[in-house]
Structures are given as structure tokens and as C-alpha cells.
Amino acid sequence: MRQPIPLAQARHLPFWRRPITLLFLTAAAMPVAFATWSALLNNFVIEVASFDGADIGLLHTVREIPGFLAVGVIALLMFFREQILGLIALVLLGVATAVTAQFPSMGGILTITMLSSIGFHYFETVNQSLQLQWIDKARAPQMLGWIMAAGSGATLLAYLLIVVTWDRFNLSYNFVYMVSGGFTVFVGVFCLLAYPQFESPNPQLKTFVLRRRYWLYYLLQFMSGARRQIFVVFAGFMMVEKFGFAVHEVTALFLINLVANMVFAPVMGRVVTVFGERNALVFEYVGLVVVFLAYGGVYFFGWGVLLASALYIVDHLFFALALALKTYFQKIADPGDIAPTAAVAFTINHIAAVFLPVLLGLLWLASPAAVFILAAGMALVSLILALMIPRDPTPGNETIFHRPRAVIA
Asked: What is the pTM of this model?
């Protein structure tokens, strides 16, 4: 086994072998598989398995179960280093994506979705932990913005290829899934072999951590997970079911989102640095209330496809401000709490994801507009919670109800 390299010594390595380069490389590899799977999903399940709103809700409930069980990462960290566990999860995501079209039945789709979801959620849990451990607090918002932009750039290339070649070469779902998943597998294996193992300066606790003083962070994570389900499950499904978008049209919409993310994610990082996490999150949630109410208007008042597409893009842009939640926790956390709390936070983030898609899928059959009105209410609750973040969060000053003091667990 290779001897771990302390993080402080990693700066002497060639640039391509440094920790930050590894973060950028995996940030580019993960969405090539996951985002391609997402772009094709609605068309694939409708054309191949005749899914309706209730079926797609069930699929996403199954997809979110591994996220709910992300606390299992804590147990696995007793046997694997975080860096190794994250790369193994990345490879699993790639393999599951590659074989997705080989199982076109309801049972097959749910099984492969579960496997790819384990890879995705366990990779993301570890990756978020490593980002907060390996990146200095002062540089974190800006650097996280650039990492998000790198992921968008890699995915942009994949989506451009889909848009340009899908009709021209009559591509199959199997071919696209194989290529995108295979690329992610290749990068994951390369990173396992080419990079040394990095030793963070603060040893991470390998036990379940649930601290009272992190309560606001936990609630914001819960509401973030609930809000994300509306977008991931139903916003894209609406474009296919209501407006009849084909594969290349859905992917073109994703392309616009990616270009916007490449431009605005670094800007959002700068915004968080200048204006703080509180103001950034307040801006996000005010915007989401407006967006979700407008989504409801698309169904209730019959507003057209151009408005729906614009709302989809704006909605997606707000995801870039999620980095403010990460840096808020980085500022209030004990250094050794980052890894176990990342796992706990991922589980909390996915509590709503286990039951919300299937319940809202049933509500969708009765009233799609009601789903988006409910989402606006969730965004309003998030806004109220964001107003409880202090302007200068620190350990002991986690909410506006506390004054700075010694850290109390």
C-alpha cells in the first residue's frame, strides 16, 4: 500500500498530481455519467417502459434511497480511506450507467437505478467532505464555484455530442449510456492508479456525529433536498409530458443550463465571498418562490413552452448557490466533524427524497400545478431558515440566536 502524503507536502508534486487537480478531474467525470443518464431518462422510460407520473415518482424514490442511507459511509470509512472510497463509488456509477439500456423493464430500470445511485451518493458524500478538508476556508467559495464550472464544462461536451449526433446518426440509448458510463469508469480507475493518497491535517471522526449546534444546517439540508426533488423529478418530466420534448430538445435545454453554469458558478462563488452565505441563500430562496409559482402558472393558466423553458434554466442556475450551504458549514464546523457530518447531512438531505417523489407523483396525476405551488411553500420555509444565519458564522455563532462563544458540542 502506498504511504499517504500529508496535504502540506502535496504542493511539491507536479500540478497534475495535486489534490485540487484530483477534485477538478473527478468533478468533471461524475456528471458525464450522471447528467447523461438524467438527460435521456424521461424519454427512455416513457418510450421503453411507458412510465407515467406515478412511475417516475417511484423511480426517483428508489434512486434516493442510497442518499438516505449515506450514513453508511461512516462505517465504510473504518475500512477504506475517504479518497479510495470516493473513487470506487465513482467507478460504480460509471458501470451502472453504462449498462442502463440493457435492462428496459420496470424491474431492471429500478435495479440499475439503485446501483448507480449508490455510486453517485457515496461519491458525492465523500467528495463534499474532501473539498471542505482540502480547500482553505478563505478560498473555498471561489474554488467551489470553479469546480462546479469544470463539471458543467465536461458535461457540456457530452451534451453537444448528443444534440449534434442523436438524429444524424440515429444513436441508440444503449450506445450513449455505454460511452458516457465508460468514460466515468476510465477516469475513476485512472485516479485510483495515478494519484497518491493524501493525508488531511485534521483526522476525521469515524463515528456518527449529530451535534445540537448544527441544527440550522441540518434543517437547511432537509429543505434543500425537498426542493431538489421538485426540479429533478418533475421539471424535466413536464417538458416531455406537457410539451412533447424529444431527446435532442431536452438535451439542448440541458446545454443552455451548462453554459450558464460555466459562466455563473464562479460568479456565484465570488458573490458568496463578498456578500456572505446568509445573503446568498436569501437571494436563492426568494428567487425559487417566484420560479415555482410561475411553474404552477404554466399549468394553471396554460402559459407557453418558452416561459417554461426559461423557468427551467433559471431554476437550475440557483443550484450554483448551494455552495453557500457548504461554506456555511465549513465556517461553523469542528475540523474533525467534516467527514461524518457530510454523511449525516446527506442522509438528512434525502429524508424527503424517500417519500416525496412517489407522493407528489400521485398528486401530479390530479394536479401538476399543485406540485409546484407546494414547492413554492418549501422555498418560503427555506427563506425563513436562511434569515437565521448570522452575517459572520463561526463555531459558537452558528445562528442569530447565539453570541460568539467557545465551541459547545
From this structure: 0.74
- At position 229, the amino acid (one-letter code) is Q
DSSP of 338-364? HHHHHHHHHHHHTHHHHHHHHHHHHHH
pLDDT in tens, 50-80: 787 678 778 877 887 887 777 778 788 888 8
Q: Cβ(86)–Cβ(343) under 8 Å?
A: no
Do residues 45 and 240 touch, judged by C-beta distance below 8 A? no
Please, are residues 353 and 232 in contact by the beta-carbon 8 Å criterion?
Answer: no
How large is the C-alpha radius of gyration of the chain?
Answer: 21
Contacts of 47 (CB under 8 A, 6+ apart): none
Per-residue pLDDT tens for 172-182?
Answer: 899 999 999 99
Greatest C-alpha distance within the chain: 64
Q: What is the CATH number of domain 5-386?
A: 1.20.1250.20
The whole-angstrom separation of Cα 33 and Cα 397 is 40
